[in-house]
From TrEMBL:
Organism encoding this protein: Solanum bulbocastanum
Record Pfam families: E_motif, PPR, PPR_2
Gene Ontology terms, MF aspect: RNA binding
Name under which the protein is recorded: Pentatricopeptide repeat-containing protein
InterPro entries in UniProt: E_motif, PPR_At4g14850-like_plant, PPR_rpt, TPR-like_helical_dom_sf
PPR repeats: 119-149, 150-184, 251-285, 404-438
Coiled coil: none
Record-linked PANTHER family: DYW DOMAIN-CONTAINING PROTEIN, PENTATRICOPEPTIDE REPEAT-CONTAINING PROTEIN
This protein's record includes keyword Ribonucleoprotein: no
Length: 550
């Protein structure tokens, strides 16, 4: 951008209103971190007599799409009409892309329907627009109707499923793509592995990894980081560590993936040791003045570190790291960090101080982390029967993503664990009023909660256990066990069951497990965990041994 500024300061640059130069500057601004300047620059040159052409508007509309400013985009759309280039395919595609990015899908569809000629860019643009507003059915219809679908189209549709919390459909599409003999690119691999991570499908994730090895494909930093995340979420942080150690040049995203993998899904002590390694490398780089090799921890790093301290009950160390965030690294604590500290305080028995910590969070603090990480942090916390902390977090998540079904399910589970069945009913009514759609497997999970609620109200403990297993058995054909176990929310469901049992005083050894095979018990083990391996500490997940003694 410094060279661009030098060129713009030279008056002779735009002598004779040379269109090529002006279009190049607009494109440079559109690709920069200051896309707004593209629109400002365009209208400045327009006043000086510049005559735009069909090459002017695609980067200009791209700049408007980046900023999300409808007013600027519509002014530029007016310029398209005024200059008679509204029939040019590339310009029409840019308009579809702009309106789709701004979530004005009706306007995007109007432009799309009026196009006399369409290419794969046109179809991908309108499909992406529908995915952005959550219209997966329409997007899939467009995907299936495409005369010719390129790799970008497959990636767009898979990403849409992934972003809409449908990793299963994402992987199904990935398998369909492979069956057609289509070779994906790095983006495809990252999408597929991420879907495996979010649904804890380690078998499929290993299959993708194996294909990469078989093809002798070099793992770049992005793919390696995604694989680390996948193995960690599936409870195999040690495999993630092998990949991590093979990366020659690591960035902070890579370090965070491994640190969080240990701290949340694996051994917290290993995570803290890895964080110490990060600081040691930073100090060595500083002493040797290797600027390029310095990697500084960021706010995500400290979420993992503080979460590890909370899991291990390391109060002194946790307070030290929390203080170092701002004092040493200049990182302003967010809601996530305060919440981790509250979790730590609660786990060492300082419940009142934990509540005060959350009450005193600065107003400007927010939820900067992606909701999937928040769900993991929330599911790893146990605050006894005081649900205010978890309730506060989930409500913030709902404000952040009001159409996400799983956030409401988290809230239902929290209320159910505390025996607040009226709030369970109120939350479900709120979901109904807001039009929150539920997938078949989510209907199944809420059905289990309903049965548990009804039985709990009747005070019959043994029947509550039997109802859960009866539901598991009666739905086994429609919802295969290996599919259900992939849902991380299963841990929450079974965790609330343990909590309800514990609330009766002691975990009674009920003889209800007779007739179940070893495979079923193994899979039931999986469902009680946030990932397909029991790697968390027993204190964290409650009376694990008592459950297995049933």
């Amino acid at each position: 951008m410094s060279k661009l500024g030098t060129a713009l300061s030279n008056p002779s640059t735009f002598d004779n209103n040379w269109s090529f130069t002006i279009n190049t500057v607009i494109k440079a601004y559109a690709c920069s971190s200051l896309p707004d300047n593209a629109v400002v620059f365009y209208f400045q040159r327009l006043k000086n007599g510049f005559l735009p052409n069909s090459f002017t508007f695609p980067p200009l509309m791209s700049a408007c799409a980046k900023t999300g400013r409808l007013d600027s985009g519509q002014k530029c759309h007016g310029q398209v009409m005024k200059n008679g280039v509204d029939g040019v395919l590339q310009v029409q595609n840019s308009l579809v892309h702009f309106y789709g990015c701004c979530s004005y899908i009706d306007l995007a569809r109007k432009v799309f329907d009026e196009m006399h000629q369409r290419d794969v860019v046109s179809w991908n643009g309108i499909m992406n627009g529908y995915l952005k507003v959550g219209e997966l059915v329409v997007a899939r219809q467009l995907f299936d109707a495409m005369p010719e679908c390129n790799l970008v189209g497959w990636n767009v549709m898979m990403t849409g499923y992934l972003n809409s919390n449908n990793p299963g459909k994402c992987l199904k599409l990935f398998r369909e793509m492979a069956q057609r003999g289509l070779n994906g690119n790095d983006t495809t691999i990252v999408i597929a592995v991420t879907a495996c991570a979010r649904s804890a499908r380690m078998k499929e994730g290993k299959s993708v990894h194996g294909c990469l090895i078989k093809a002798s494909k070099d793992l770049n930093l992005i793919i390696s980081t995604t694989l680390i995340h996948m193995y960690s979420r599936c409870g195999r942080a040690e495999i993630g560590r092998l990949i991590f150690d093979q990366i020659s040049i690591k960035n902070i995203v890579c370090w965070n993936a491994m640190i969080l993998g240990y701290c949340i899904h694996g051994s917290p002590k290993d995570g803290l040791n890895l964080y110490s390694d990060l600081l040691s490398i930073r100090l060595e780089s500083t002493e040797k003045n290797h600027v390029k090799s310095r990697v500084l921890p960021d706010e995500i790093t400290f979420v993992g570190v503080l979460c590890a301290c909370a899991r291990e009950g390391l109060l002194t160390e946790g307070r030290k790291h929390f203080g170092n965030m701002s004092d040493v690294f200049g990182i302003k604590p967010s809601f996530a960090h305060y919440w981790c500290m509250a979790n730590l305080l609660a786990n060492v028995g300082l419940m009142q101080e934990a509540i005060e910590t959350l009450k005193n969070i600065p107003v400007e603090s927010n939820l900067p982390l992606e909701s999937s990480l928040w769900s993991e942090l929330l599911s790893s916390a146990r605050f006894g029967r005081d649900v205010s902390l978890g309730e506060q977090i989930v409500n913030k998540l709902i404000d952040q993503d009001p159409k996400n079904f799983w956030h409401y399910l988290l809230l239902v589970n929290i209320y159910a664990a505390a025996g607040r069945w009226d709030e369970v009913a109120q939350t479900k009514e709120k979901m109904k009023n807001r039009g929150i759609e539920r997938t078949p497997e989510s209907f199944f999970k809420l059905d289990v909660v309903d049965k548990l609620a009804n039985v709990a109200l009747n005070g019959t403990l043994k029947n509550s256990c039997l109802c859960i297993f009866d539901t598991l058995g009666s739905n086994n054909e429609e919802f295969k066990l290996h599919e259900m176990q992939q849902q991380l929310q299963w841990k929450l469901l079974m965790d609330l069951w343990l909590t309800v049992l514990a609330s009766e005083g002691t975990l009674k050894k009920l003889n209800i497990m007779g007739g179940f095979t070893d495979d079923f018990l193994t899979n039931f083990n999986v469902m009680l965990c946030p990932c397909p391996r029991m790697t968390q500490s027993p204190d964290m997940w409650g009376s694990w041994d008592a459950l297995l003694d049933f």
